[in-house]
Amino acid sequence: DIQMTQSPSTLSASVGDRVTITCRASQSVWSWLAWYQRKPGKAPKLLIYRASMLQRGVPSRFSASGSGTEFILTINSLQPDDFATYYCQQYDTFPYTFGQGTKLEIK
Amino acid sequence: EVQLVESGGGLVQPGGSLRISCAASGFTFTTYTMNWVRQAPGKALEWVSSISSSSADIYYADSVKGRFTISRDNSKSSLFLQLHSLRAEDTGVYFCARDQAISPRPPWDAFDLWGQGTMVTVSS
């Protein structure tokens, strides 16, 4: 199985900050990688697909890059609504696998 | 409105069975691959199973293979997950999710539409 490792596990930041989250795959997943936002009591929300494609309706302060085994999610000018847990997911190979999550907290 | 609504969760004893459902509306269910994803309390999201639009292609996580069965009824725009031989580690919220690729065969794409989830608790 492909292991997905996110770093950091927890990130403290303030409104207006720029933050980055890294996701590493144990083998190449090409660009078959997605990023999701998860808030308690709410359904996960797709932010990014195919490593760098912004899902329709997602604010442009979210961006992502990478291919192969290393991927980055960047959030510019953090807004209060952005404090949540973020997951990467590879969908190159079954079984699909998620990272362990990065919890973005208010500093 | 485009939505997925799960139902059927509940409390079940270890070794027991449960069938959870997902009702789709607002889109052409028959053209999409569908998925189940779960999240145990305090844990990460975990992919459980995928089923193609025609049910020709089905995949399971090793942790549920042989115990869970995914199925769909395209005439009723419904997705199902039959859970057998349940264990405490199967406890969690179960989400159904739509694959955004309209393709009858893999490769597919990310999950663009999710339900709110249904809680399954396995405990004596």
What are the salient characteristics of this protein?
heterodimer; A: about 110 residues; mainly beta; globular; B: mainly beta
The average pLDDT value of chain B, as a whole number, equals 96
Total strands of chain A? 11
Radius of gyration of chain A: 13 Å
Number of strand elements of chain B:
11
Largest sheet of chain A: 7 strands, mixed
Radius of gyration of chain B, whole Å:
14 Å
Oligomer: heterodimer
Considering residues with a beta carbon less than 8 A from a beta carbon on another chain, report the largest interface and each chain's count: A-B, 25 and 25 residues
Helix content of chain A: under 10%
| Helical segment count of chain A | 0
Based on helices, strands and strand pairing, what is the structural class of chain B?
Answer: mainly beta
What report would you give on this structure?
The complex is a heterodimer of chains A (107) and B (124). Chain A is an all-beta fold and 107 residues long. Chain A has strands at 4-7, 10-13, 19-25, 33-38, 45-49, 53-54, 62-67, 70-75, 85-90, 97-98, 102-106. Chain A contains no helices and eleven strands. In chain A, the strands form two sheets. In chain A, strands 2, 4, 5, 6, 9, 10 and 11 form a seven-stranded mixed sheet that branches. In chain A, strands 1-3-8-7 form a four-stranded antiparallel sheet, with no helix packed on it. Chain A is globular. Chain A starts with a strand and ends with a strand. The mean pLDDT of chain A is 97. By secondary structure, chain B is mainly beta. Helices cover 0% and strands 49% of the residues of chain B. In chain B, the strands form two sheets. In chain B, strands 2, 4, 5, 6, 9, 10 and 11 form a seven-stranded mixed sheet that branches. Chain B is globular.
